[in-house]
Amino acid sequence: MKLNFKTREAMVGYLFAAPIIITILIFTIYPVFAGLYYSFTNYQPTEAQKFNMTFVPEESVSFHLGVFPDEEGLVKNELLSLFDPVTFLTLDMGVKLNAEQKEAVSSFLDTDKIVEDFLAGQLNSSVSVKDFMKEYMSSKSELFTRYVPEFVGLKNFREMFKDRYFWISLKNAFVYSIVVVPIQTLLAILLAVAANMKIMGQRFFKTVFFLPSISSSAAISMIFWLIYSKPGVLNRFLSTFGFQAVDWLNEPNTALGAIMVMNIWTTAGYFMITFLAALQSIPSSIYEASQLDGAKFWKTFWKITVPLLRPQMLFVSIMGIIGCLQVFDQIYFLIKNMRNITISYYIYKNAFEYHRMGYASAIAMVLFLIIFAITALQRKLIKEESYF
Amino acid sequence: MKKKLKIGMIIAYVVLILYAVVSLFPFLWSAIVSLTPMRYTENGVTTGTDIMKWPPEINLFKWPPEFFGAPATGENYVQVFKITPYARWILNTIIYAALVTIGHLIFDALGGYAFARLRFPLRDLWFALFLATLMIPGHVTLIPNYNLMVRFGFVNTYYGLFLPKLTGVFGIFLMRQFFMGIPREMEEAARIDGASIIKTYFKVVLPISKPAISALAIYIFVGTWNDFLWPLLMTSRKEMFTLTVGLDFYRTSYYTYWQYMMAASIMMTIPMIIIFLIFQRQFIDTGVSSGVKG
Question: Which chain A residues have a beta carbon less than 8 Å from that of B220?
Fold first, then answer.
């Protein structure tokens, strides 16, 4: 059988595209929907783990009933009357229960069998909560094998609007972008204009300016931790001009600013390359004409250079805003004060330190909406741009 | 007229040199600190070195040169390997970055070609979907991906590190853009000669795609080498750390081992600088076309 070319092309097309399609579906598309679902629940990973926790049933029963299994004269029925399934699980096994689980435990926990095995000395090996419940629940044991987060509707979002730290972190992320992006863009243009003159060592400057952007944010953060530290070089340097030493990263008023400066330092040289390439494609006759007119440098800069760089500026600032709104690494390494955190760090903190993944997902969804709006705006602006 | 131009040039040089100093200073400073011994002995008296001393008393006319009044030493670099499993971290980082880069090279190129040249059902729909995923911030997919890895039991394994990173929409766009720019004639000629699509791809298309592929490789390798958040989540055992995650090991809430931390920072930066110096052209080209760093 010989397939025609079109069929073969389609098959090869899918063969080639399959790895990407699968990866994107699993690691990008599924997580978006999963995250959306989490954001309406009280998802707590610690809750999911509690069923895998192991314990020795004999000890728990012993605690619960206040007797030892090898004691003389234990009567099964007497022990049974003492046995309270809910307190046994919550206090003696240490498993937190919701209303549904409580009800299931009080109706279906096979206390008879537990006490019998306890007296027979068969409970002395370590077992996971999951397996224990499978064994000793006469019904509904699935409530204890799979963790299903509770659906809480819009609770997370309502909580968010009352959460001080949510607003602080969101505000910080915006302040961060609004300060960093224009300064780094302007600095990058200035450097590009300077490097675009007929100067010696252009290659050297390009290389040096690019260096910060290929270094890891982790290493850079640590280097600046040294520079910004209270007895550090920055304070020593400033003290020669009579300034008081400032604990740059611990002082709530200066910490975010210090990190902004660091970020500008990291990215300005990188974006300079973008602008330099654009400048080099501008015909020099435009400049020569303006110089013959005797136009001053700043006038040339504002009237000619900046308008010509408009597309690149738009690109650099939108990418800059999106990047800055998500700033994380630098905050993780350098910020020790909750007043200076940004939103992506707050998401991380909720998800992985407070173990509140439902709430963290809800905040992530808000960040998603913000970035989405900015990207949509970018698309619109760039479309308009292409008409010129 | 001429005078004005000269003043412009002088200003340009001043700006460039000043910023070059600003750009280099943090690296030089941390290098100096990393070469300063923790303590040193003079006239039989051992004292701790004050790396915060100002001015730093640099004397380069001696051998070994002196920083902060103490002779430079490579001891901190040796110590980093002793007090932390730094060699293992280097290995982990290389494995992580290499696997991710290889994945991108294979899958992004294949996919980029499929989307650039081959017609298959729902192609445009898939592509629109990919385009849409560019708007998704990393923190949205982070939590579900983490849970996925936990469920697979991939935490603290290389699988957990590299699997979600094997391909990316950015690389697919880059490769697609490149493939769309190359003339179709060569592929058509190969096909007329009876070569299959797969054969055409490997024998005709790939060999002329080296510039794009190497640019992508460098971009991804450097990005993965410097990646921090994902390895932070995926590793909790010291033996599985990458270099970026391990860096936090040299400070406690009470004390920071500045010299070790700077030695570790410098060591993880040097390979990137070397790669950059070798492949400058590719860097600067992809830099222009992509233009983003978090």
Answer: none
Q: How far apart are CA B223 and CA B226, in angstroms?
A: 5
Residue B2 binned pLDDT confidence (cut-offs 50, 70, 90): low
A195 touches chain B (CB under 8 A): yes
Which domain covers residue B18, as residue numbers? 2-40+49-72
Cα separation of A204 and A190, whole Å? 17
Q: Residue A99: pLDDT above 90? A: no
Q: Which residue has the tokens 């040199």?
A: B17
Q: How far is B281 from chain A (nearest CA, A)?
A: 11
Residue numbers in A near B277 (CB within 8 A):
207
Question: In chain A, positions 279-338, which contact chain B (CB-CB < 8 Å)?
Answer: 291, 294, 297, 315-316, 319, 322-323, 325-329, 332-333
Closest CA to A249 of A222, A276, A219, A229: A229
Instruction: Mark which residues 357-386 of A lie under 8 Å from B by CB.
Output: 357, 360-361, 364-365, 367-368, 371-372, 375
Q: Are A306 and A374 in contact (CB under 8 A)?
A: no
What's B108's domain CATH number?
A: 1.10.3720.10
- The answer to whether residue A348 neighbours chain B at the CB level (below 8 Å) is yes
* pLDDT tens column, A32-74: 999 999 999 998 887 777 787 888 888 888 888 888 877 777 7
What pLDDT is recorded for position B289? Answer: 44
Question: What interface predicted TM-score (ipTM) does this complex get?
Answer: 0.91
Nearest to A258 by CA among A292, A296, A232: A232
pLDDT tens-place string over residues A275-288: 888 888 777 777 66
Instruction: For residue range A34-44, list pLDDT tens digits in order.
Output: 999 999 999 88
- Among 1.10.3720.10, 3.30.470.20, 1.10.760.10, 3.30.950.10, name the CATH number for the domain at A156-385: 1.10.3720.10
